[in-house]
## 1
Amino acid sequence: MPELAVNGGTPVRSTPLPSVFNASGRRFGDEEVAAAERVLRSGMLSATWGTEVAALEGEFASLLGAVHSVACSSGTAALHLAVAAVNPEPGDEIITTPISDMGTVFPILMQNGVPVFADVDLATGNLDPAAVEAAITPRTKAVLAVHLFGKPAPIHELRALCDQHGLLLIEDCAQAYLAPVGDVYAGRVGDIGCFSLQQSKHISAGDGGLVVTDDAALARRMRLFTDKGWPRDTDERTYLFLALNYRMTELTAAVTRVQLTRLQQVVDDRRTGAAKLTAGIGDLVGLLPPSDDGDHVYWQYPLLLEDGIHPWAAALTAEGVPCTPGYLTAPLYAAPALRGKATYGGSGFPLQGVEYPVGLCPNAETLINERLVVLPWNENYSGSDVDDIVAAIRKVHTALALES
Ligand SMILES: *Cc1c(COP(=O)(O)O)cnc(C)c1O
């Protein structure tokens, strides 16, 4: 049997796979170059007087089948817009997941809300509706669900729960562009859907964010929140409420408009490659490919192991297939900002009396500490790239099974 690369053997793969960290794993073409040049040559880089951001908002809303879209400067900003639209009283609670990017959670704290973490499904890492229901209190104002790695969360169940309890539902779709949830896309079941254009997402302009909603009042509040509360739709010349500058630039919008034309193909190509990987490893014992009911859009490709994720991930990475054990090193609530209440000065506000102990969300902790290995996924993986990934996984699987 071939020696593992981690023990000095020859790696399955010696050339790097396409990666989002350079041109090999991104789809930026002449059209994006022309779009950026068009804006620069126009002399107008600001959306306040330009046309590109407004056009992008219209195009994104119609792609998603939404009435309104508001562009902003990042995915975190998009989530901040959504929480600001919820407009919690200080100390109000928003229920969310412990497995995500921190951009899901910090906007809650920035609006002086308390993030309440509900546990996740052990199979997908997405919020478990029963755990969300158990976390609802009289102070709950909203549920903020994440479609982790591109696999839709049980959003219709969460919708029903929110309706029953009079809560707003926010969808964090940063990892889930065009993921079908029934006959609509992720982002359209909640009151607000939030998207990111950061470098590693399905489409990118370096940074940027978009929200969609059908609610005119929520849309207006979010637009005002990108623009210091300054109402450009009236001639009041005043600041209507506390808000920041989260405006997207014309350059970002022009590039994103081209990226939008590539999005469906990006999703299709990610799905094709992932299906090939799943078929190639489906027979391996003790290793579970992601569950896919035709709805996974594969921002990443998560694998579930019975245990031993750290040696396993190190061995696979050494074979030339980089991967991350756990996705996170700890659930979000373990971060100093939350568990240590590192918020506003030494006050701990608004988390005084709130504890985030070890064991708060046992399934999330099990996934992060024992089960999850995440492979970066990419639309530019060729068939032979995926063959190499299959071969590397099979090699590691056999070798480590024999060792144990
Ligand atoms: C990337 C990401 C964010 C944050 O987006 P930024 O554009 O990096 O601010 C939020 N939530 C999830 C699930 C993400 O993947």
## 2
Amino acid sequence: MKEHKKKTPRGIYEYYEKNPDSADKKIFGRVSYPDRRGFLKGAGLATMAAVLGGAIPFHRNMPAGLIPAAFAEGLEDVVIEGKDGLTVLNDRPMNAETPPHLLDDDITPTTRHFIRNNGIPPTEVNPAGWTLTIGGLVDKQMSLTIDDLKKNFDVIEQQLVLECGGNGRAFFEPKATGNQWTYGAVACSKWTGVRLADVLKAAGVKDNAIYTAHYGADTHLSGQEGKVPISRGVPIAKAMGNENLIAFAQNGKPLHPMNGAPLRLVIPGWPGSCSQKWLTRIQIRDQVHDGPKMTGTSYRVPNRPVAPGEKVATEDFDIIERMPVKSLITSPQTNAQVSGREVMVRGHAWSGDRKVEKVQISIDFGATWMNADLSAPANPGAWQTFTTQVKFPQPGYYEVWAKATDDHGISQPFAIAWNPKGYLNNTFHRIALVVG
Ligand SMILES: Nc1nc2c(c(=O)[nH]1)N[C@H]1C(S)=C(S)[C@@H](COP(=O)(O)O)O[C@H]1N2
Ligand SMILES: [Mo]
């Protein structure tokens, strides 16, 4: 297997180089004073412990500005408790993706579910005392505990794809700013919860309702009290779809802290950003929601073709709704050495709220394509699995390409139109193999 290129660590070192004291405060919530050692505070201490993989018994002795030795090798060595094998793209906020070969399971294990945070996750989480408020344009405001949700509504279990709108951003040229996701800001875990639609119906959505607005308990990177890191929403028609869950369990266990414990939305087929984590409130509005990350260039794409690098006026952007058709080869791992002349190629395909009809594989740079076997989705919103036995004519270097086509006849493109924030890259997944 070839060496994979090392990623440049982002975040922690940049901050510490510029100003160690303010870095401490920003990253771990610790304040240092001239003659007094600053203690790690609740949230900061929990963040550091989560990143290091364990509580820090002597945290009171840690000098301000001390970068934990665990980070000496850069972000490659950052350990996130309960996660395994993820590539950390940023540590503040925490963002980590999953290498494709670790997404081989039909149901993504929690340890391998990517993390996309816009702010600082809440640290004092008490599931028993957690409440979800439904407010705004409803007949009756509701405040529900997780027990209330379980008692009063159908509890269902669904395998649902979550994909960040910025997945694939790393491959745009010119580069788009933001986390440089390659392939792995996508997952399909099994989520347990109640239907968002059932809860909204119980509250009674008024006739003039247009959009939802979602709020969570994470806090803004600036530390500014009351400042919301992200609050997105969906049109009422989408919210009323039976595929959307208010989830309290992931793969049969409570949600992972980084995936929104104890309560989150899962809005499959739409940008992951719609699926508010640490969910505390859903507000029904009579206008398109305008919370943080709903406006400007956030999760919005130009409504017309633009030239790479072109400046686009804010009014020329549309909100991203469904995610496009896409596929991912999860086995073999890219750069694997194939002994013999045959290999089983496997992966997953999905297309927003549609079904995938066909996945094709090419080993000759797209000149010819062969149909793979494709499974039905476990339920609407789940990805489908493709497999095919590939024979290579002779030893040498090959690329295996995958291309999915959905039930509207829409296929993945070879190349994607550039957009300023690098969203919706659904080009073919290509892996490299050396045969013989
Ligand atoms: N409260 C809150 N919810 C959030 C986010 C966030 O930063 N805060 N990130 C969103 C984005 S952009 C994505 S892609 C998904 C990622 O979910 P995951 O971290 O569980 O993989 O969560 C969404 N929900
Ligand atoms: Mo996202």
